[in-house]
Amino acid sequence: MAAGGEAPEKKERVPRPPVDAAVQETYLEGKTILIDKPLHWTSFDMVRKLRSLLQIKKIGHAGTLDPLATGLLIVCTGKFTKKINEFMAAEKEYTGTITLGAITPTYDLESQPEQQKDFSSITTEAIHGATKQFTGEIAQFPPIYSAIKKDGVALYELARRGVDVKPEARNITIHSFEIMAIALPLVSFKVVCSSGTYIRSLANDFGAALGCGGYLSSLRRTKIGTLSVEDAVSVETLEQLIAPGHAAAGK
Questions:
Q1: Which residue from 190, 157, 189, 198 is spatially nearest to 64, judged by alpha carbons?
Q2: Distance from C-alpha of 39 to C-alpha of 20, rounded to nearest angstrom
Q3: Neighbours of 1 (CB within 10 A)
Q4: For residue 54, what is the DSSP state?
């Protein structure tokens, strides 16, 4: 398994040690697993990892986290996969940072900052004040680099082909948007929002409202409904719990 939050390496296929039948049966029957997703892993990387460890097929996650985000990822197995839609519809809590003074095509650090602007005149009052227009029910345009599909094709695929993509606005709800710290160009925040909210879009729109641009430079999902990342386990811990021999072998 990859260490230090790096993307998992693709290794040569090797025989997998058998899973303890009693352990496997509990996951086949159904479990909800709270994972603290590491940086650079995709949500499907986590599902693939667990599918390999448990050697079961009925498994899925309840809401994608971008590779550059960390935090709470819910994975369901067996009959508990029926709960996935319920978890996906729940409100979410995030913490993170917005970097002011530039924008990026993806609204985060998946692409390079551009169109740098001076942010030195942005005041603390302006930063706090700008949150008000993004609180409550708002119409939000998703990033063009997103998995939303148009005519069956993901928007990010169209964008990469150079197609002029114009996503439609979605009604979402920002229950709270708190500024936790300011150390320009970084603005730390905490957001509680409805399902379907793109924090990348919020960062981009927030920077635009301040007149200097902004992009999401870090993100951590801390809650989904009543479930908290404080109760989640790391990939390493989960590996030890499910297949100690597998983890010890470094496979």
A1: 198
A2: 29
A3: 16
A4: H
Cβ-contact 200, 216 below 8 angstroms = yes
> 25 CB contacts (<8 Å, ≥6 apart)?
none
Instruction: List C-alpha distances in Å: 38 to 35, 233, 234.
Output: 9, 11, 8
Residue 249 has pLDDT above 50, yes or no: no
Domains, in order of start, for the chain: 21-89+227-248 (3.30.2350.10), 92-224 (3.30.2350.10)
Q: Which of the residues 66, 108, 151, 205 is marked catalytic?
A: 66
- In this prediction, residue 28 has a pLDDT band, given cuts at 50, 70 and 90, of confident
What backbone phi and psi angles, to 5 degrees, belong to 65?
A: -115, 130
66 is catalytic: yes
Pick from 58, 44, 52, 49: nearest CA to 19? 52
Cβ contact 178:65 at 8 Å: no
pTM of the model as a whole? 0.84
Q: How far is the C-alpha of 122 from the C-alpha of 210, rounded, in Å?
A: 7
* CB of 36 closer than 8 Å to CB of 75: no
What length does the chain have? 251
